[in-house]
Amino acid sequence: MATRKKAEDRRVRRTRALLQNALMSLMIEKGYESITVQDIIDRADVGRATFYAHFADKQSLLSSRLEDLRARLLQEQRGALTTVRNGAHVLGFSRAMLQHASESLPLWRKLAGEESGAFVLARIHEMLAELVRNDVAAMGCTQRGAEREALIQYLTGGFVALMTWWLNAGAKLSVDEIDTRFGKLAMRGLASFVAPSRAHAVG
Questions:
Q1: Rounded to an integer, what distance in angstroms lies between the CA atom of residue 159 and that of residue 179?
Q2: What does the angle CA 19 – CA 44 – CA 36 come to, to the nearest 5 degrees?
Q3: Could you report the per-residue pLDDT of 95-153, keeping only the tens digit for each?
Q4: How crowded is residue 171: how many other Cβ atoms within 10 Å of its Cβ?
Q5: Which of 55, 70, 92 is the last residue of a domain?
Q6: Are residues 43 and 123 in the same domain?
Q7: Integer Cα distance of 169 and 201 in angstroms
Q8: Rounded to two decimals, what is the model's pTM?
Q9: Judgement on whether residues 51 and 61 belong to the same structural domain of the protein
């Protein structure tokens, strides 16, 4: 029974990956808005019934890919929250996100260069803001309410803008170099918002 369950789980993961990868490749070619469910199942070479057994529509398929990315970033963040690198606390999600973006450079360029990519980028921004909230809380941010949320949005927007600039320039700086630069800039902005006991560790 357990063996059959494992085999079924592997099939589910394999099918989900096929559909997700089909969506990503189509997004590079024609942009998110132009893609139909038929395009996806043709590219993945699966039946329509198989698609709808896993996803309600292309938006839920996209959401599943972003949720997988969020889980990966959250895992990295948990391991990095207490890390200090080059004299500054690390924002735990940033390096893993930059690594993912550099590995998917054609897709990120497509998203940044087309109007239809705005929807996807907005979803990514929301996901990253959640991760920034985790980091800000772990650093003992003393602000609450609107001021705290403004800080979170400022850091998220700054990260997305820096990452976009880096990718558009061909990602010539290494992941570690761009992550270190972001960390130093972010920590300078955070210095007056973290708890006094943490302030000495902010680069």
A1: 9
A2: 75
A3: 889 999 998 888 887 787 666 677 888 888 999 999 988 888 777 776 678 888 998 89
A4: 17
A5: 55
A6: no
A7: 32
A8: 0.77
A9: no
